[in-house]
């Protein structure tokens, strides 16, 4: 029992740290109305195992604490990531065709981040809300769906034994 709990805590911390470091190293493209937060590719891990949801949410929270747009970004940015991850895992369990469900699941971050972060940026830095929602959604779509899904499938082929239990390999 203790080994399992320790492993879960370590995995959560490592995921949070990787997400945070990637976001902050690439800060010029990770924040703002036009953003390509490459660390968001990692949200696809929530599709594989719900364990990753906490680490991804904590990573987003730490990133937004250190480089975001204040308390609004800390609260609403982290909420958008959490909601995206939960919806992705829910989609995996709802749609029977695993490859189709991955594609559908990859759209959730586009929707949640586009709406929530677009609104938050409108409130915090007074940019046009609708245009900002489109810009954030487009960046999220490119990162998670266009880049992340093929990359995830490539990893599933290369490291198939880790993905066999969910049918991606």
Automatic annotation (TrEMBL):
> Which parts of the chain span the membrane according to its record?
6-29, 41-65, 102-121, 133-156
* UniProtKB keywords: Membrane, Transmembrane, Transmembrane helix
InterPro entries in UniProt: QueT
Specify the protein name. Answer: QueT transporter family protein
């Amino acid at each position: 029992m203790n080994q399992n709990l320790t492993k879960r805590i370590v995995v959560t911390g490592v995921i949070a740290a990787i997400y945070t470091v990637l976001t902050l190293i690439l800060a010029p493209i990770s924040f703002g109305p036009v953003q390509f937060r490459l660390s968001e590719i990692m949200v696809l891990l929530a599709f594989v195992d719900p364990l990753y949801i906490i680490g991804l949410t904590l990573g987003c929270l730490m990133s937004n604490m250190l480089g975001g747009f204040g308390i609004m970004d800390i609260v609403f940015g982290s909420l958008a990531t959490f909601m995206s991850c939960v919806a992705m895992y829910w989609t995996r369990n709802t749609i029977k065709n695993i490859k189709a469900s991955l594609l559908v699941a990859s759209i959730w971050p586009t929707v949640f981040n586009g709406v929530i972060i677009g609104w938050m940026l409108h409130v915090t830095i007074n940019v046009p809300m609708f245009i900002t929602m489109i810009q954030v959604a487009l960046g999220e779509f490119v990162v998670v769906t266009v880049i992340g899904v093929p990359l995830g499938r490539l990893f599933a082929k290369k490291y198939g034994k880790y993905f066999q239990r969910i049918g991606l390999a």
